[in-house]
Amino acid sequence: MNAVTDFSEIKKITMESLSIVIENGIVESISHRSGSAVGVRVLKDGVWGVAKTTEEKVEEGLEKALKIASSLKGKSKTSSVITLGTSSMKYVHKMKKDPREIDVEDKLVLLKEIEKHLRNKGIANSRVIYFESYRWVDYEDSTGIEGTSFVPRTGVIVSAVSKGNGTLQQYSERRFGITGFEIFDRYDFPQIASKTAEVAIKLLDAKSPPGGRQKIVMDPALGGVFIHEALGHAVEGDIVLQGGSILEGKKGEKIASSNVNVYDNPSLMEYGFYPFDDEGIRGEKREIIRNGVMVGYLTSRETAKDLEGSGGNGRSEGVNTPLVRMSNTYLAEGDRSLEELLEEVKNGVFLAGSRGGQTSPLEGIFQFNAEYGYLIRKGEFAEMLRDVSLSGRTMEILRNVILGDEVKFNPGMCGKNGQSVPVSDGSPYIATIAVVGGSVNG
Fold first, then answer.
1. What's the mean per-residue pLDDT of the chain?
2. Which is it for strands 262-264 and 328-331: parallel, antiparallel or unpaired?
3. If you average pLDDT over residues 140-150, what whole number do you get?
4. Is 266 domain-assigned?
């Protein structure tokens, strides 16, 4: 490491992946990718220099990064980073069944069998997507931290599009994990595919939701999206320091009901797992909200200095510059069963799953689209609903929630500034009040 820098780091990332797409019984694509890259960063006089290099030319890469930092002096915002004690970390995930040892033809036979269960009367399009990926990381920095890790990820998405009554309706299910081919032992994918087709067909006869502000129950999938999108991005340190969050300056204030506890925990064996982040800080559970009080932000080495954080959420796609990112972010459980929540609501709307949406961390407002829903009548499920939207104000929702007694996680990919990383969000069932089928101000 270069002694003339304030801080420097070297990171090598090696990736390998395979994806298979089967649509309507036809193999649409089989894609295999692999490669590696080395990235270096140096901090000199409060200015970052970043460069990509190779294993053979690391020293040259560090010199290049140092020159970049020197050339930007006076033109770039002054930075400083937290430093930690010397440590050595090693994590290698053990797979019960290594997908790389299974022939592609055998995988195709299995996936085609799953896809058959999607093809039902009324289904116009059926699709199965399979992927496996592997990430090796070698990290070292000038403070004496060294880390090596190997993390595999495997997943399956099943999707069905139904046609009838002059409309098309889509429904999908996905199962991802920090796992190998044993994911097929963990989940009954033919059964999941059959259920997916059934829901897609039922959506053809589903009703439109009643609009307006009303009592609702969110399932864990939609509740997790709310926690990730509406709250999680608002506590990312870089967004806070850029003045883009409604939660700026709220540390120590009561912002939610006393039953609300929110965490980000990369050490959980969920899809956002990592043993250490892309700045060499060990992945550990971090509190965001404790008993309704805002207790901390998610931070990187740099943002931790200004926000009194501990870092650990600096993540990057490949060897790009780390950004403050979530990992496994979740709202902790309460003490109510789903039946008790439905009884509490009496009459309202149940919303399940997510088809995306939008949120503004600065304004604290959100709008999400559920995959489907049900009317709640006299504390029980009634007619099925489709094209259900949900909108509201983040802080208002957090102050008015009744929480279910079991947290469930849902995996996905989160994009930010052109970089995408694996995450998982979790939530129990949530009863609250929000606007259904309308705008925030509706």
1. 95
2. antiparallel
3. 96
4. yes
Residue 277 belongs to what domain range? 212-436
What length is written for the chain?
442
Q: Do 320 and 360 share a domain, yes or no?
A: yes
Question: Is 351 in the same domain as 401?
Answer: yes
**Dihedral pair phi/psi, residue 128, rounded to 5°:** -125, 130
Residue 438 clears pLDDT 70, i.e. is over it: no
* 4 token code pair: 């003339």
Last residue of a domain, one of 205, 228, 251: 205
Asked whether residue 149 falls in the same domain as residue 30, the answer is: yes
- CB 416, CB 190: distance < 8 Å: no
Domain boundary among the residues 173, 205, 237 is at 205
Count of domains for the chain: 2
C-alpha–C-alpha distance, residues 435 and 117, integer Å? 36
Residues 197, 229, single domain; the answer is no
Is residue 15 within 8 Å of residue 134, measured between CB atoms?
yes
Asked if 261 and 331 count as a contact pair (C-beta separation under 8 A), the reply is yes
CA distance 67 to 62: 9
User: How far from 430 is each of 322, 350, 418, CA to CA, in Å?
Assistant: 33, 10, 32
pLDDT tens-place string over residues 83-137: 887 899 999 999 999 999 999 999 999 999 999 999 999 999 999 999 999 999 9
pLDDT, one tens digit per residue, over 270-299 is 999 999 999 999 999 999 999 999 999 999
Which of 16, 19, 62 lies closest to 43, judged by CA?
Answer: 62
Chain CA centroid to CA 145, Å: 27
Q: Tell me, yes or no, whether 248 and 196 share the same domain.
A: no
The pTM score is 0.95
Tell me the two tokens of residue 1: 């490491």
Nearest CA among 408, 13, 422 for reference residue 179: 422
Regarding whether 250 and 187 lie in a shared domain, the answer is no
The model's confidence at residue 442, banded by pLDDT at 50, 70 and 90, is very low
- Say yes or no: 230 and 284 in one domain: yes
Going by C-alpha positions, the residue among 88, 1, 35, 48 that lies closest to residue 280 is 88
One domain, residues 118 and 231: no
In tens, the pLDDT along 386-414 reads 999 999 999 999 999 999 999 999 999 99
For 338-352, what is the mean pLDDT?
A: 97
